[in-house]
Specification:
There is one protein chain. This protein is mainly α. Helix content is about 65%, strand content about 0%. It is built from 14 helices and 2 strands. The longest helix is centred in the N-terminal third of the chain and has 25 residues, at about 1-25. The N and C termini lie far apart (about 45 Å).
């Protein structure tokens, strides 16, 4: 009973995220993409004109909510501590490679679970690769990998990321002509702004309190035999699976559609699905958290995570400007080369930042 009580917050957090993703799809977000940090950052990059892929351009209120919700909760809990300065350029590069891997697979770790719970069996290969990448990353952690010490910084430094997201909120509501919003494709599929924002705020606040991290869940199993965070990971999948069965019965958008072929915004190349997510898991472990965790930390005063998120944002633009991102037709040659370069680069970063024993 005591164990269940200890795990209850992370279980409820996972159920909340899973239910929220199903609801967001039912209200207009793309199928199997109720919540996807990589996809949402890519859309924001497009809306700001950082890339010109017309079908993936929109300022996603969910991201804004995650950051502001985390900020509010961290301030309430007196955990808003501004720190940074830990290998910022390295973190920026790792953030870029996280996005290269995610856009090869077409989703972040969170969307990987959402896709799997929606019946997209291509995500099984993604999960295998993700787990393998995390395992390799933990080998460096065991040998003393570190991105060096962070330092206390001014409060302003920690407030800049939340302030930028307030600016994004104003922009998505005002929708000025200089922004780029998709008229077709995934970027044109969106839940109402108010609903997306409120869900983002709730999830952001809860994620800050529970420390939910998908990469961290698997990492802790390898390093500590601790399944606490992994339980949250599983809870998300359970909630999405049950939610999809319900909306399918009601005839709403979404539902459970098992198979490899014809899945929403996905491709069937198993090798590159696995390698893309291996890169995401590998880089995320060295960074100390998955894309969602980085967003939450960036709202909680961690400027190192803000640098990582900026790296992911630039990485998303880079992927679309240089034809690295996959599509339903499959991965591109440029994307395959970029993933291989990413795996090599992350390995070099691992060796260079590992203490000599």
């Amino acid at each position: 009973m005591k164990k269940i009580k200890e795990h209850l917050p992370i279980i409820l957090m996972g159920l909340l995220v899973g239910a929220a993703s199903v609801l967001l799809v039912a209200l207009g977000n793309p199928a199997n993409m109720g919540f996807c940090i990589a996809c949402f950052l890519r859309d924001i990059a497009g809306a700001l004109g950082m890339h010109r892929a017309e079908v993936v351009q929109y300022i996603r209120p969910e991201v804004i909510g995650l950051v502001l919700g985390a900020m509010i909760m961290s301030m309430i809990g007196k955990e808003f501590k501004v720190r940074g300065g830990s290998s910022p350029v390295t973190r920026f590069i790792l953030g870029m490679f996280v996005m290269v891997g995610a856009l090869m697979f077409l989703g972040c770790p969170l969307r990987m679970i959402i896709r799997l719970a929606g019946g997209d069996w291509n995500a099984i290969l993604g999960l295998v690769g993700f787990t393998a990448g995390i395992f390799v990353g933990t080998l460096f952690l065991k040998k003393g990998f570190t991105l060096k010490k962070s330092y206390a910084q001014s409060k302003l430094e920690g407030l800049l990321m939340p302030a930028a997201n307030v600016g994004l909120l104003i922009l998505v509501i005002a929708a000025p002509a200089f922004l780029f919003f998709s008229k077709t494709g995934p970027g044109s599929m969106r839940a109402p702004i108010a609903v997306s924002l409120v869900i983002g705020l709730i999830v952001g606040a809860m994620a800050q309190r529970t420390r939910l991290c998908l990469a961290g869940g698997i990492r802790d199993v390898f390093l500590l035999k601790d399944f606490h965070l992994l339980i949250g990971f599983v809870s998300i999948g359970v909630a999405v699976f049950i939610g999809n069965l319900i909306v399918g019965q009601l005839g709403l958008p979404g539902g459970f559609h098992p198979g490899f072929e014809g899945q929403a915004i996905a491709h069937t190349d198993g090798l590159w699905n696995a390698l893309g997510m291996a890169l995401v898991g590998y880089a995320s472990v060295l960074l100390g958290g998955c894309p969602m965790r980085q967003l939450i930390l960036s709202g909680s005063g961690n400027s190192d995570s803000t640098v990582t998120v900026l790296g992911m944002l630039v990485g998303a633009a880079f992927c679309h400007n240089f034809a690295l991102a996959s599509s339903a037709a499959g991965p591109t040659l440029n994307g395959k080369i970029a993933v291989v370069i990413g795996l090599v680069a992350v390995t070099v970063i691992g060796f260079v930042n590992t203490k000599k024993v």
